[in-house]
Specification:
This protein is an alpha+beta fold and 195 residues long. The chain has four helices and ten strands. It has a four-stranded mixed beta sheet, with helices on one face. It has a four-stranded mixed beta sheet with strand order 5-6-10-7, covered by helices on one side. It is globular. Pathway: Amino-acid biosynthesis; L-histidine biosynthesis; L-histidine from 5-phospho-alpha-D-ribose 1-diphosphate: step 6/9.
C-alpha cells in the first residue's frame, strides 16, 4: 500500500494529512474552510484516495494560507507515497463535464513542476473563500509534488460547477496516473531511468 503521513507546521497553519493512494475514497476533511472541504471530499471520493486532513489555520486573516498550505502538504503526501514511482502510468488526462461546465485536466508525474491554469470564475467568492485561491491550491500542490499540471476551462458559467469540474477532473487524472501498469511494474516510466 502506498501511504504517507505529513505534518506541516508554520506560523500560519498546522496541518496533519494521512493519505492512502490505493484506497476506496474514505475521507475525513476539516480545513476550517467549508468550500475547500467540499472540493477535497470530491477529490478523495472520485480519485478513490483514502484521505484525512486536519488544518488549524489563521482564518482570522483569510483563507489564503490555509488553502495554499493544504495544497503544499497534500502535494508532499503524494510525492512521499509514490516513492520512486516504479510501475506508475505517469500520465493522465480528461475532459470532465459538470452541467454547463467542461474542463480539461492533464497531468504528468514526471518530476518537473509546472502549472498552466486557464480559467476565470464569474463569482469572486465560493462560499466564504476567494475563488482566486483555487489556483493557489493547485500551484502549491504541483510545485511540492513535482508534477506538470494543466487545467483549462473550456466553457462554464457557474463558479461552483467550474471548481467542482476541476477537482473531479484532477481526482480522475491523479487516480489514473498513479495507478500501476502491470507491464512495467518494476520499471521507472522514463527513458532516463529515474523520475
Amino acid at each position: 500500500m502506498r501511504k504517507a503521513e505529513i505534518n506541516r507546521i508554520t506560523k500560519e497553519t498546522k496541518i496533519n494529512i494521512s493519505l492512502n493512494i490505493d484506497g476506496t475514497g474514505k475521507n475525513n476533511i476539516n480545513s476550517g474552510v467549508g468550500f475547500l472541504d467540499h472540493m477535497l471530499i470530491l477529490f478523495a471520493k472520485h480519485g478513490l484516495f483514502d484521505l484525512n486532513i486536519k488544518c488549524d489555520g489563521d482564518l482570522y486573516i483569510d483563507a489564503h494560507h490555509t488553502v495554499e498550505d493544504i495544497g503544499i502538504a497534500l502535494g508532499a503526501a503524494f510525492k512521499k507515497a509514490l516513492g520512486n514511482k516504479k510501475g506508475i502510468k505517469r500520465y493522465g488526462d480528461i475532459y470532465l463535464p459538470m452541467d454547463e461546465t467542461l474542463c480539461l485536466v492533464a497531468v504528468d508525474l514526471g518530476g518537473r513542476n509546472y502549472l498552466h491554469f486557464e480559467a476565470k470564475f464569474p463569482s469572486p467568492f465560493l462560499g466564504t473563500m476567494s475563488s482566486e485561491l483555487i489556483k493557489e491550491f493547485f500551484f502549491g500542490f504541483s510545485r511540492e509534488c513535482g508534477i506538470n499540471l494543466h487545467i483549462k476551462l473550456i466553457h462554464g458559467e457557474n463558479s461552483h460547477h467550474i471548481s467542482e469540474a476541476m477537482f473531479k477532473g484532477f481526482a480522475k487524472v491523479m487516480d489514473f496516473a498513479t495507478s500501476i501498469d502491470t507491464r512495467i511494474i518494476n520499471e521507472i516510466p522514463s527513458t532516463k531511468g529515474v523520475i
